[in-house]
Every structure is written in structure tokens, then in C-alpha cells.
Amino acid sequence: MSAQPTRFLTGITPSGTPHLGNYAGMMRPAIAATRTAGCENFYFLADYHALIKTQDPARIHRCTLEIAASWLACGLDPEKVTFYRQSDIPEITELTWFLTCVTGKGLLNRAHAYKAAQDKNHEAGRDLDDGVNAGLFMYPVLMAADILVYNADLVPVGQDQTQHLEIARTIANRFNGIYGDTFTLPAGYVPKAGAKIMSLAEPTKKMSKSDTNANAFVLMTDDKDTIVRKFKRAVTDSDGCVRAAGDKPGVTNLMSIYSVFTGRDYAAIEKEFAGRGYGEFKLA
Ligand code: ATP
Ligand code: MG
């Protein structure tokens, strides 16, 4: 008997146009996985997740089509991949309720996205849950249902999603413990380079679709001149040396992007640009 195929599953939220971070952290490894023998691929457009951030149906619809087009442009072969829109599979939201009832509220209290919203309110001196919708709080359970409904083995994600994936494992374990062995425990599939591309404008912050500063991200739809302009403006430091270090987040981020597209490691990049300025490095 032949071995069971490894099942890859991943999704992206139509909350805006996909950017370099989405491509490096998730889409590129996910497309590479479709070309690996002995695997099955389930890739989807997470339109219900977009409702947490926008209640504008026309925008979600437009972004869903745009992201579908981006997947195809990246080389997704719809003959090989089960490619779908989350809202077309009602079993996902149905399963969400079953999972909700085995999920401890404390587990969701600790989820990064919810905590970040609370921290922002704390800094602004507002009530901790001010303006936080329950969808943001519940979204790790919807994400668990996305993954568990198809018994996925590996989930291509960027580093920012590894905690939510861990929550999905915890929920699956708990469900299996109560009702018997039902769900496969999923593991993350995180690339070595490009798992967390940072904002070009504020390199201590993740590059995000929902950033309001257009200089923070490079979109997959940006033309060459725009890309060059954004890299030229990218925040660096006054040290002038292409070197990866904790106190050089801007330069380190540019090195990680360069590493994704050239396959070179930091040591090789430092050597390549020794004695050359940031101007040349940014153009490269
Ligand atoms: P939003 O700001 O609306 O949350 P996003 O840019 O974070 O948008 P998502 O749709 O939430 O994009 O994430 C899709 C996939 O891309 C996830 O696997 C996520 O981990 C990955 N990803 C998102 N941003 C980055 C980034 N800056 N670097 C690497 N991977 C990323
Ligand atoms: Mg996100």
C-alpha cells in the first residue's frame, strides 16, 4: 500500500493587496509545496476572516478576486490544488461552533492579535476592549476550523501565525481527548528565510496588508519604478555598514528580503556588500 499523501493547507485574508511578506512567508513556500511529489494542497481565500477588519462587502469581493489572481500569477495550478473561497464551505463555520465549545476562553485571551489590540487601547488610556470586536477574539477558533476540517498535516504560514497554529493544535488535542481520535494535529511549515518581513517604514513592525502607510509595504502589483522608490526610501540607520544585527532592524530586514530572492545567507550578503553603501544595496 502506498503511503498517505502529506496534506498542505493555507489561506490568506482578502483584507488588501498581497505584499512581499505574504509572498516570502507563505505563498512562495506554498507554491513550492505543490510541486513536491506525494502531497495534496488545499489553498483558500479567507473572506470570513476579512470581516474582522472591514465590513465593506464590495472591498472584500474585489480583494478576493485580486488575491485569487495573485495566487495564479505565482504559479498555482488549479488542476493540482483544491483552490476555494472559505465562505463557499459552510462546514467550516459549522465546525467553528463545535470547536468553540471545547476551547478555553483563557487560551483566546492569550492570542497575539487580541492582546495587541488590548495593548493599543492600554497605551491610549482607553478601556482594554474598546472597539475590539468579538470576531478578533474568536478568530483563532475559525482558523482552527479552517485547518482541522480538512485534516491538514502542514500549514504554510509566516512567523506571525505560528501561535495561532499552536492554538489550533491545542483545540484539536482537546477535541480528540473528549470525543476520540478525530482530527490530525497540524504543524507549521515556516520558511527559513522571509518568515517575518518587516515594514520598510517602521522595521520593528511586521509588513502588513492593512498598514495605512503605503511606503511600509511592497505590493505584488507594484511596478518596477514604485518598488525601486519604496526601497530607496526604506528606513535604515547611520552606521553605513550592510550587516545583520539586533540594533539594525532596517538593514537586517532588507538583508532578509535580499536573502529570499537570491538564496544567499547573511554572511554571504555581508561579504558581497563590504565597503559598499546602503544606496547600492537598496538598488540590488
Ligand atoms: P492583515 O494586516 O490584514 O492581517 P497580513 O499582511 O498579515 O494582513 P494575512 O492574510 O493575515 O496577511 O496573512 C497571510 C499569510 O501571510 C500568513 O501565513 C501570514 O503569516 C503571512 N504573512 C503576513 N505578513 C507577513 C510578513 N510580513 N512576513 C512573512 N509572512 C507574512
Ligand atoms: Mg495578518
Walk me through what this model shows.
This protein has a 3-stranded parallel sheet, with helices on one face. Strands 4-5 form a two-stranded parallel ribbon. It has helices at residues 20-34, 47-50, 57-73, 90-100, 105-109, 112-123, 134-148, 162-179, 224-233, 249-262, 266-272, 278-283; strands at 6-12, 39-45, 81-85, 154-156, 187-189. Helix content is 47%, strand content 9%. The chain has 284 residues and is mainly alpha-helical. 34% of the residues are buried. The protein has 12 helices and 5 strands. The structure holds adenosine-5'-triphosphate (ATP) and magnesium ion.
List the helices and strands and how they pair.
Layout: E1 6-12, H1 20-34, E2 39-45, H2 47-50, H3 57-73, E3 81-85, H4 90-100, H5 105-109, H6 112-123, H7 134-148, E4 154-156, H8 162-179, E5 187-189, H9 224-233, H10 249-262, H11 266-272, H12 278-283
Parallel strand pairs: 1-2, 2-3, 4-5
Helix pairs in contact: 4-7, 7-8
The structure holds adenosine-5'-triphosphate (ATP) and magnesium ion (MG).
Adenosine-5'-triphosphate is lined by residues 12-13, 15, 21-22, 24-26, 53, 157-158, 160-161, 195-197, 206-210.
